[in-house]
Amino acid sequence: MAKRLIPLFDRVLVQKIAQKTVSNGGILLPESAGASKLNSAKVIGVGPGKVSKNGNVIPVCVKEGDTVLLPEYGGTSVKLGEDEFHLFHDDDILGILKD
Amino acid sequence: MAKRLIPLFDRVLVQKIAQKTVSNGGILLPESAGASKLNSAKVIGVGPGKVSKNGNVIPVCVKEGDTVLLPEYGGTSVKLGEDEFHLFHDDDILGILKD
Amino acid sequence: MAKRLIPLFDRVLVQKIAQKTVSNGGILLPESAGASKLNSAKVIGVGPGKVSKNGNVIPVCVKEGDTVLLPEYGGTSVKLGEDEFHLFHDDDILGILKD
Amino acid sequence: MAKRLIPLFDRVLVQKIAQKTVSNGGILLPESAGASKLNSAKVIGVGPGKVSKNGNVIPVCVKEGDTVLLPEYGGTSVKLGEDEFHLFHDDDILGILKD
Amino acid sequence: MAKRLIPLFDRVLVQKIAQKTVSNGGILLPESAGASKLNSAKVIGVGPGKVSKNGNVIPVCVKEGDTVLLPEYGGTSVKLGEDEFHLFHDDDILGILKD
Amino acid sequence: MAKRLIPLFDRVLVQKIAQKTVSNGGILLPESAGASKLNSAKVIGVGPGKVSKNGNVIPVCVKEGDTVLLPEYGGTSVKLGEDEFHLFHDDDILGILKD
Amino acid sequence: MAKRLIPLFDRVLVQKIAQKTVSNGGILLPESAGASKLNSAKVIGVGPGKVSKNGNVIPVCVKEGDTVLLPEYGGTSVKLGEDEFHLFHDDDILGILKD
């Protein structure tokens, strides 16, 4: 059973970060309690990049370990063993999240 | 909880400027009182720029701190904690507003 | 309240010229009296220009002060205070009107 | 009232040539009498040309004074005073008519 | 009355070749008698060629006098006096017919 | 009656290879007897190639005499005398078949 | 009967890997037993690559022998004798699977 997937071209493999529904004190957070539902994910792996019109490779903008903001829709779901991942094209990813 | 978002490619992160509905003297301005409903916003952050066909990065035209005029439609809404922001592509922004 | 708008990319800010409906002698001109309904406007401001595929900026063809012929449709209306302006892309403008 | 229009980009200003419906001897020509209904026009003015992908200006193929064959449809009608003109893009014009 | 048409860009002016419906011996050929209905035509005139993205002119592939195979559909019909011609874009023409 | 057709641009003239329905021993092969219905054809002639954006000719990938695998749909049928041929664009042909 | 197919352009010939439905101990695996249904395949052959806008050949990213992850849809099925293969365009293949 394959354990690793190396994305091709400008694809980025991410694993979505589950939303915090319990406060640090262990209390169940109601939906509207400011816990903004960020569609965020961790970058697991990136492809070499898209090939430009004249054949140059345009490297991907995010790197392994980045926390990124995903668009509401899109992406291809991939199950490797028990884990679920998603593949997005580099230019569909909205931005990099920093603390 | 992520506090900052660094836009990717030619995306621009803006925060919409609420329309003035009360005159300086505190009187509620009627809709038609010349308070033109400008769809304006403050630029919070910009991406590095779009990648041209032959791989060059084309820098974004607006910069952090600019006040810009947004199109009537479009943009992606992003909530970071309590604050709401919007992401627009650089070439969807109509212009820079100056006093 | 913002008083000036600097267009971005290849956008052109224009102010439409009201059609003459009264002859020099003060007589109300009937619609068909040769007062051809030219969709003309004055150029108020221009953007730096469109960015070509390989990253060069292609300057706009019209300049501030030109009188131009607008297409019948299109353009984005912008109200700055009491005044109404319109934004057109450079290559939607049909031509420059000369006496 | 503007009397001249300078076309922009690759636009060509033409004035349609009325079809001959009376023979030289003054006799009314029936529709089918070989007086082929050529959609021809005289070139009044031309724009500088279209801008290519990498920013070069590609000059227009026809010049002022040419008699050209127009496509059956298309073109933008422009009335300057009493006269009616039409604007076509250079690559919509089918060919140059010669005696 | 214009007698000649010089095509523009990559347009090719052709005159369709009527299909042989009578055998050399003068007998009327039935439709199915192998007289394949080739949509062939004689090239009367060619334009200078299409302009490539970076402004180079790409000459047309066929020349005056060639016998060509036309696609089943397309082309613009042009009547010059009594004669009927057709205008095709160079890359719509399927091939050159040789004995 | 034209006997030869020289394809233009990136077109390839092919003649489809009839499927074997009788085994070597002369027995009628049932449809499912592994006689896979390969949509194969012999290359009769090729065009010079497609013209790239900047005017270079990109030669065709197959050559006269190759046996090729055709897509299930597409192609233009051409009858030259008694024979039926088909024209395909080079990049519609799936591959070259080898024993 | 052709035994080999050499893909053209950026096409990749693959043979799908049947999903394991029996555990090593020979027990029939229920659908949901974590045997994630990976749409994987072995690369049998690759084309030379796609031709870029200015005529350069852009080599394919995968090579013979790679195990790849296929998209859920797409691909052209090809039967060579008893075996079934599929043709995919290089940039439709999601990634390379590694143990």
UniProtKB/TrEMBL annotation, chains A, B, C, D, E, F, G:
Q: Which domain of life is it from?
A: Eukaryota
InterPro entries documented for this protein: Chaperonin_GroES (IPR020818), Chaperonin_GroES_sf (IPR037124), Chaprnonin_Cpn10_CS (IPR018369), GroES-like_sf (IPR011032)
**SUPFAM superfamilies from the xrefs?**
GroES-like (SSF50129)
* PROSITE patterns noted in UniProt: CHAPERONINS_CPN10
Query: What molecular function terms (GO) are annotated for this protein?
Result: ATP binding; metal ion binding; protein folding chaperone; protein-folding chaperone binding; unfolded protein binding
GO terms under cellular component: mitochondrion
Tell me the keywords, alphabetical order.
Chaperone
List the Pfam families hit by this protein, alphabetically.
Cpn10
The annotated subunit structure for this chain is:
Forms stable complexes with CPN60 in the presence of ATP.
User: What family classification does the UniProt entry report for this protein?
Assistant: Belongs to the GroES chaperonin family.
Reported function: Seems to function only as a co-chaperone, along with cpn60, and in certain cases is essential for the discharge of biologically active proteins from cpn60.
Protein name, please? Answer: Protein groES
| Annotated source species | Picea sitchensis (Sitka spruce)
